[in-house]
Amino acid sequence: MTFAYGPDAAPVLDHLDLTVEPGEHLLVVGPSGAGKSTLLALLAGTAHPRHGQIHLAGHTARHARTLGTAARVLVPQEPYIFEAPLHDNLTYLAPNAPAPRITEAIDTFTLAPLAADPARPLRPDHLSPSERRRIALARAWLTPTPLLLLDEPTAHLDAGARAATELAFASHPATVITVSHHFPAPEPGQRVLLLDGATPYLGTHASLLRESALYGELAAGLGEPSAAGSRSTAST
Ligand SMILES: Nc1ncnc2c1ncn2[C@@H]1O[C@H](COP(=O)(O)OP(=O)(O)OP(=O)(O)O)[C@@H](O)[C@H]1O
Ligand SMILES: [Mg+2]
Predict the structure, then answer these.
(1) Alpha carbon distance 180, 29 (integer Å)
(2) CB of 134 closer than 8 Å to CB of 109
(3) How many domains is the chain built from?
(4) d(CA 118, CA 86)
(5) How far apart are CA 59 and CA 61, in angstroms?
(6) Is 12 a member of any domain?
(7) Range with the lowest mean pLDDT among 50-59, 162-171, 189-198?
(8) Residue-range definition of the domain harbouring residue 122
(9) How far apart are CA 106 and CA 86, in angstroms?
(10) Which protein residue has the closest C-alpha to ligand 1 atom 16?
């Protein structure tokens, strides 16, 4: 699959060939501008490849988009919160979520202070970036979707909320594709896709540490080199 933002633009993703198994938790890492959010937009069916195809459980991504949350749920980098009570914000993708599960989501993502007055609408412009993200994550976590696409889920979160988020999604039964450049140490054997310019590398944490200098830098939290500046630092 190849994708570019315009007919004359250089591809952001070039000949990416990737199969993700049902229930797999794939981590996607790479420097800013490498195409991580673009990949999630393609998987969500909001952008379309120039060449090649994307299939989600037998549907094209374009068709999956029309199926909505029954096919996939995307938590974008800038999550959307609407002016309505917390409960409505949490359940609009999961209207049948049982009450105990909603309570669990509120606990897991530390949203109780926003539920103090259950009828009071949230004021999106008064929420902190962390609150916005935790609401969007709880909303996604509540859905029975088979595919979760999480774009920088732990950005803006403190260490406690970050750990709770990682734990909550680690045990989620869906296929989970998580984009992050503040990534946790992946689970043993977990596959990691490193996007670096137009050349993707697929491996495990251990193999990428061996094979990519850029991955080593990202894993060590040594800054966030730009995609253009990073290509020469990858050793494979
Ligand atoms: N709507 C758009 N139109 C044109 N170019 C775009 C658009 N969105 C992204 N790009 C470009 O495509 C490339 C990949 O962007 P993308 O947002 O996917 O990167 P990213 O890896 O998610 O970066 P970050 O870590 O900063 O979120 C960048 O060069 C970006 O400038
Ligand atoms: Mg992005």
Answers:
(1) 5
(2) yes
(3) 1
(4) 7
(5) 6
(6) no
(7) 189-198
(8) 73-147+166-171
(9) 9
(10) 35
Nearest CA to ligand 1 atom 4: 5
In a domain? residue 66: no
pLDDT tens readout for residues 208-227 = 989 998 888 888 874 444 44
| Domain annotation covers residue 104 | yes
152-175 residue pLDDT tens: 999 999 999 999 999 999 999 999
- Which atom of ligand 1 is least distant from the CA of 39? 18
Could you tell me if residue 122 is inside a domain? Answer: yes
Given a contact cutoff of 8 angstroms between Cβ atoms, the answer to whether 152 and 180 are in contact is yes
Instruction: Name the strand (E) or helix (H) holding 159.
Output: helix 159-170
Q: Is 32 in the pocket of ligand 1 (CB under 6 A)?
A: yes
Distance 121 CA to ligand 2 centre (A): 29
In DSSP terms, 177 is beta-bridged to 26, 149
Is the C-beta atom of 80 inside 6 A of ligand 1?
Answer: no
pLDDT digits (tens, 9 = 90+) for 118-149: 899 999 999 999 999 999 999 999 999 999 99
Radius of gyration of the chain (CA): 18
Distance 25 CA to ligand 2 centre (A): 18
